[in-house]
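Second attempt. The first submission of S-(hydroxymethyl)glutathione dehydrogenase had a stray character pasted in from the spreadsheet, which I only caught after the job came back as garbage. Lesson logged: always re-copy from the clean sequence file. Corrected sequence (375 aa) follows.
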Amino acid sequence: DTVGKTITCKAAVAWGPKQELKIEEIEVAPPKAHEVRIKIEFTAVCHTDDYTLSGQDPEGVFPSILGHEGAGVVESVGEGVTNVKPGDHVMPLYIPQCGECKFCKSPKTNLCSKIRESQGKGLMPDGTSRFTCKGQQVFHFMGCSTFSEYTVVADISVAKVNDKAPLDKVCLLGCGVSTGYGAALNTAKVEPGSTCAIWGLGAVGLAVAMGCKAAGASRIIGVDINSSKFDIARKFGCTEFVNPKEYEKPIQDVLIEITDGGLDYTFECIGNVQTMRAALEACHKGWGVSTVIGVAGSGQEISTRPFQLVTGRVWKGTAFGGWKSRDSVPKLVDQYLENKLILDDFITHTSTLNDVNNALHLMHTGESIRSVLKV
Ligand code: APR
Ligand code: ZN
Ligand code: ZN
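This time the job returned cleanly.
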């Protein structure tokens, strides 16, 4: 029985920027009040893990335990926890839902601010860490830290999901897939019969395509400089493709031509400020809406001529697809179980946590869409 005791287990520790993660024995303290200790079963690898490891993330702190697309089983809970119990199948959520803050009370946003400050510092809400390694404090990451056999998260950062859901698949709903799918459905609110274009056909872009298809879009154009992504993108709903490398003129001009004046909805799923501009300018005059999903490097800025907005194009952005996390993730899991959304086809590689550096490498080189690791 481990309840109330420190657990010694394996984790991938990020000791410093640009260093390979190291599999270490760590200690995980028991959950305090309103905290939950989770046995992580599976985790995927996402660009934000890589971004923070690169040292460019201004909030990045080391040593830390990265990972935020995970799923597992509750081992024990701290005092006052009522939303989950030991044995529950759960997913940690990097955007919590407290239900009480100004943001949670607004139907217009999902950006719960309750623990934003401590989470940004790599700490639990009380300002301390539950992880130690070799006598040294190790920081949390995005309120999740899924690259560990055990983790501790705030109770407002946990969603209980259907026991029947395969955790090696639904872990993808912890970030990229939910983000893209929700961007189409919640943020852009794509309408039946509309035309859409998606920049970047990684996991996020493919999930956007799935959302546009679910919304009944008539044309879904995939835009990627890597044409090898086009085959799989058809499975997710893309109806046609454009590779900007095959054209001399700006890609927005090409798209405006083939869509009789521009698109109803565009999505940027790369994190490049040039393609963000192209996506906005490819929108139809009068009503086109462009949604920024990709995360640009820190310090980057976007630009366009204000005339683009004056003439009715709208620039939007979204985090975690606008989903109110605790309300929505269990429903998305159920949608997967009802075959209403695809997860399996995102997974191009599977391995174990020991292989996490290779999984990061495969993501970096664009070889993988998603790697899922058994923890
Ligand atoms: N024009 C068109 N496509 C591009 C360009 C470009 N200039 N640069 C890159 N791409 C394509 C790549 O070929 C790749 O297919 O964008 C795709 C990005 O996919 P992934 O690297 O797999 O990224 P993904 O996991 O989908 O995340 C997309 O969202 O999470 C944020 O900022 C994060 O950059 C990440 C983005
Ligand atoms: Zn809140
Ligand atoms: Zn992510």
